[in-house]
């Protein structure tokens, strides 16, 4: 693989074959408005707009300044790297709680991740995209949403009963699941079709298995039902919520298992069996008519008073695996991560940040203490086993 161009040669190349969308992506990734970037490089906001619209091309010197201000190599702006076709807006949770700048930043991170994924696909054949796209009636009822969720289970080959691993189900059908970097605490899970491949991004602050499973099912609902829907409305979010509830806890199966009264031991057992939160199960019991309004309100009040985490913890959130396995397979076949990064045209630090969000692999900490040391508070012997 040829050595990437650096310094003035890279800036000169980028100036000659400038890609406007690359500048927009880099600016949004850094959370900058056009006027803020213009100030950093001593330009006018109008000049930045013209570059991003492709109405004019920056000089070699300006490309170098833009690269320095945005923390990317000058060659990042050169044409020839793939850019995803984005047919619709991303589906964000709680749009009122996130600014447009934060949403743009998250979507730009998705474009960077897609660029790395596309590079990896030159060497590894990822699972083909097999998520169904199912149409809804113009004014769908809850029964319509439930029917779509059941159809989606059938299309994905999900057997009766709980879904063992929601994240792995998405990955096995071609979706790339990543964690969001620490760019905004207010950006919740969101999903998007980047070109023909769906991507799901989750907030790593939710280190809870039940919530991560529901988040994944919620985003699956958007990807399956809402390709052309305007994102952000409460109606759209409620539809994805209802999809997730039916997808994870089919009414035809869980209805007979729900208690008729507030029985916490039974609810704990259902949480362990179906892998969903107590709040989701209580909400489900109310929606399906087994909990009356008074019972539902009392249960939710008790859960609210208890706070987070809920009782009956299921452990850490489900971890993505697809991209980590793909990178390892590349390495095993002689294509190092450095080579992948060079071909992608991304700065190494940024590519590494994407890869870090694709894996929750952690070292395992094992403690061993000699019997004699136990009585005398002696030193502990620590051993680290990578690959946990």
Produce a short descriptive summary.
This protein has 18 helices and six strands.
What does the model show?
It is built from 18 helices and six strands. Helix 9 crosses helix 10. The chain has helices at 7-16, 20-29, 34-40, 45-53, 60-70, 100-120, 142-155, 166-172, 209-225, 234-248, 251-254, 264-274, 278-287, 293-306, 322-332, 337-344, 348-357, 371-376, and strands spanning 91-92, 176-179, 190-194, 197-202, 364-368, 381-385. A four-stranded mixed β-sheet has the order 1-3-4-2, sandwiched between helices. It is 50% helix and 7% strand. The protein is an alpha+beta fold and 388 residues long.
Q: Give the spatial strand order of the biggest sheet.
A: 1-3-4-2
Q: In terms of per-residue confidence, which ranges show pLDDT below 50 for 5 or more consecutive residues?
A: 1-6, 362-388
Helix content: 40-55%
Beginning-to-end CA distance, first to last residue: 33 Å
Averaged pLDDT: 84
- Structural class by SSE content: alpha+beta
Overall geometry comes to: elongated
The beta-strand count equals 6
Percent strand equals 5-15%
- The number of helical segments is 18
Summarize the helix and strand pattern as letters.
Answer: HHHHHEHHHEEEHHHHHHHHHEHE
Primary descriptors:
18 helices; four-stranded mixed sheet; disordered C terminus; alpha+beta; 388 residues; two-stranded antiparallel sheet
Outline the fold blueprint.
Layout (H helix, E strand, L loop, with lengths): L6 H10 L3 H10 L4 H7 L4 H9 L6 H11 L20 E2 L7 H21 L21 H14 L10 H7 L3 E4 L10 E5 L2 E6 L6 H17 L8 H15 L2 H4 L9 H11 L3 H10 L5 H14 L15 H11 L4 H8 L3 H10 L6 E5 L2 H6 L4 E5 L3
Parallel strand pairs: 2-4
Antiparallel strand pairs: 1-3, 3-4, 5-6
Helix pairs in contact: 1-5, 2-6, 3-4, 6-16, 6-17, 7-10, 9-10, 13-14
